[in-house]
Amino acid sequence: MRHPVSLIRRSLAAGVSSLPLLMAAAPGARAAGMPQLDFHNPLLTGQVVWGAGIFLFFYLALRGWALPRVETVLTNRNQRINGDLDQAHAAKVEADNAVRELNETKKAASAEAQAHLDAVLDQERKAAAARLAELSAKLETEITSAEKAVAAERARALESLKPIASDVAETLVQKLTGSRPDRARIETAVAHQVASEAASRQAIA
């Protein structure tokens, strides 16, 4: 893209360079019916000279004063725009780096939180398993103790029932036979029967 100042300078230079061609073409133009280009007329010649002088003055003024200032303004404007673009590009790069660092930090924090959560859950599982094992052992001990206590109570109950069973058996035999049976034999039979029932219960358990 061409610079605007360069275009203005080329246009002015082209205008100045076209004056000799215009003067050279004046006789032919007059012959073709254009008296306004008759340079033999002193009035027209003065107008052309004054116009050329004014044009040359404005050309020199533009070239020496206005155009350099315009070029300076445009150059400063381009430099400022380029600087703003560079700053915007640097800001974009910095923002992209900040977003990347933020994503990496977020990912690292998420991984750390997940690892901490896994560790806590593993500790809780181990603690729950230990408590469950302790509770199971305690229940097993209590069940064993209860079974032993029940067995002891059953044995005491059976022992306490032996005299009663012996008395009942002695009374039944006496009523059935009419004679008093041997007390020792009845107690032995009752003890044998109680032992047999206890052995059968243990076998079932």
From TrEMBL:
It is found in: Cell membrane; Endomembrane system. Residues 85-156 form a coiled coil. PANTHER family: ATP SYNTHASE SUBUNIT B, ATP SYNTHASE SUBUNIT B', CHLOROPLASTIC. The chain crosses the membrane at residues 47-67. Keywords: ATP synthesis, Cell membrane, CF(0), Coiled coil, Hydrogen ion transport, Ion transport, Membrane, Signal, Transmembrane, Transmembrane helix, Transport. Its main location: membrane. This is ATP synthase subunit b. It is a single-pass membrane protein. It comes from Acetobacter conturbans. It comes from the Bacteria. Component of the F(0) channel, it forms part of the peripheral stalk, linking F(1) to F(0). The b'-subunit is a diverged and duplicated form of b found in plants and photosynthetic bacteria. Residues 1-31 form the signal peptide. Belongs to the ATPase B chain family. F-type ATPases have 2 components, F(1) - the catalytic core - and F(0) - the membrane proton channel. F(1) has five subunits: alpha(3), beta(3), gamma(1), delta(1), epsilon(1). F(0) has three main subunits: a(1), b(2) and c(10-14). The alpha and beta chains form an alternating ring which encloses part of the gamma chain. F(1) is attached to F(0) by a central stalk formed by the gamma and epsilon chains, while a peripheral stalk is formed by the delta and b chains.
